[in-house]
Design goal:
- Helix content is 43%, strand content 15%.
- With 298 residues, the chain is an alpha/beta fold.
- The termini are far apart.
């Protein structure tokens, strides 16, 4: 700093010549420090405020999920891509529902997010990562940070509903019985039910299986929830109940939700973005193979 005082440095920072100020009065002035403070307030603070405003304007948090011109064509005889130049961003605390007719690539998009398959073209990022580039252990770690509800629930038929819900907790965190008990009680409160039945999932009603699948996805308290047709095969009030429950949980936990449904009636119940994908009639038969391949890797 060549021996310059702090107020000289401040004068240079503000873009004002310090020498010109010194030339105005060579004799010491008792109020010089106060004058320097006033000068700093008048010249530096507005600049700093302007810089802060500029930074706030240009800073945008990274989306939790982003599709940038993503295309996907399933292996097989069909030549029509399931997804073509798909673009969207999903930020923290928001929701997006992919909708449209069956077979238009909604489940394929979900499988891409979960790393069950790879895009043919474009760039996909999830939680700041590119799933297609991750080795298997890092891909598993990424999935553990996402609450996922597959299209048919994905419950193990030979386990009770409670054991299905607590499975991620025991697998990923080696949780003991006391921790599992506390977590299950939190899930009961979150779902608004008195207790989780101990019956095998194969014997439970469809509504209970859907609730259990949602609870299992939430038990690790993820910040991103991905749901594929969460109310599939439900009708009437039961169908609406699931979507309203997801909306309530999203608001309570500031969750980010990516969902898909073919049901236009429920697509808007989350109150967020809705993106209708175009029909892909020629490629419908390959959707099941995409989802099935992903489920087989869990």
């Amino acid at each position: 700093m060549s021996g310059r005082s702090g107020d000289q440095a401040d004068g240079e920072t503000s873009g004002t010549s310090r020498e010109s100020r010194d030339g105005e009065s060579e004799s010491p002035r008792p109020a010089a420090q106060d004058d320097a403070s006033d000068f700093t307030q008048q010249t530096i603070e507005p600049d700093a405020q302007q810089h802060r405003q500029t930074d706030a304007q240009i800073f945008t948090p990274e989306p939790l999920v982003s599709f940038n011109r993503v295309s996907y064509q399933s292996p097989g005889a069909y030549t029509t891509p399931l997804l073509e130049n798909l673009n969207f961003e999903l930020h923290q605390g928001h929701s997006l529902v992919l909708t449209g007719p069956a077979g238009n690539g909604k489940s394929a998009a979900i499988a891409l997010v979960m790393g069950g398959t790879r895009p043919t073209n474009g760039e996909l990022r999830v939680l700041g990562l590119r799933p297609r580039l991750l080795p298997s252990d890092q891909l598993d770690a990424m999935r553990a940070r996402i609450g996922y509800v597959p299209q048919h629930g994905g419950l193990l038929s030979n386990l009770s509903l409670a054991d299905n819900i607590s499975l991620p907790l025991r697998y990923h965190r080696s949780a003991g019985d006391a921790e599992v008990k506390d977590a299950l009680e939190r899930m009961q409160e979150l779902l608004g039910i008195d207790e989780i039945p101990t019956i095998a999932s194969a014997l439970a009603s469809l509504r209970l299986r859907r609730l259990a699948a949602l609870a299992r996805a939430l038990i690790l308290e993820p910040k991103l929830l991905v749901v594929d047709e969460p109310a599939r095969d439900l009708a009437g009030m039961a169908k609406h109940e699931i979507w309203h429950l997801i909306a309530r949980i999203q608001a309570a936990r500031q969750l980010t939700v990516l969902a898909c449904t073919s049901d236009a009636e429920t697509a808007y119940l989350l109150g967020g973005q809705v993106l209708s994908l175009p029909s892909r009639h020629a490629a419908r038969a390959s959707i099941a193979s995409v989802t099935g391949t992903f489920m087989g890797r869990l």
